[in-house]
Design a protein that fits this description.
- By secondary structure, this protein is α/β, with parallel strands linked by helices.
- It has a single domain, classed as NAD(P)-binding Rossmann-like Domain (Rossmann fold), CATH 3.40.50.
- Helix content is 44%, strand content 16%.
- It has 8 helices and 7 strands, in the order βαββαβαβααβαααβ.
- A 7-stranded parallel beta sheet has the order 3-2-1-4-5-6-7, sandwiched between helices.
- Strand 1, helix 1 and strand 2 form a beta-alpha-beta unit.
- Helix 1 packs across helix 8, helix 2 packs parallel to helix 3 and helix 3 runs parallel beside helix 5.
- The longest helix is centred in the middle third of the chain and has 29 residues.
Amino acid sequence: MTVRTVLVTGGNRGIGRAIAEQFVADGHRVAVTSRSGEGGPEGALTVQGDVTDAASIDAAFSRVEAELGPVEVVVANAGITRDTLLLRMSEDDFTDVVDTNLTGVFRVIKRASKGMLKARFGRVVLISSVVGLYGSPGQINYAAAKAGLVGIARSLTRELGARGITANVVAPGFIETDMTAALPEATQAEYLKSIPAGRFGRVDEVAKAVRWIASDEAAYISGAVIPVDGGLGMGH
């Protein structure tokens, strides 16, 4: 295994934290961004970074590069939700989610690609959602942004694929996090019925898929959407 410098955005909780912990456990040099600049997992460098602000992202990358070396693996995970039905969704509800979950990813990968091009090596992993291609009532903003990540990964693959850089999407389904725990029990039961595996996923199951797609073993896979959803989306 080659030790890499890995940066996970939004790595202070939930799926992002589990991904960072997995890379730390595997012996990589790991940094995470959080909006507060604290709260990251043990063994990782936590830096302040707000994906809605290009200058903040630039500063975060500069600090990681100074302390850990050029970023070779970037996991774009930071995201927000503003769920509500279409007729109640304000324009701000829509644009805030798209600015964080889609434009935020653009800012991160644009900054990351500079070092990757120089090194002629890079792994870009975008954390989408089963909702991006499966759809979900009350999540038009979130689904639009998460679907957009597939277009980013595939276009990036065509642009940078000849330079040793891969770009893939990992699309989790319903995973046991604070976000799903907050759902009413009746809603959770309803969701469970539609998951062929009959259970919610664990954050470590998402983390292991990310670890693999970022590894040397997956060097010839790019532009793929890897579902980690118990069969819910059937690879839509």
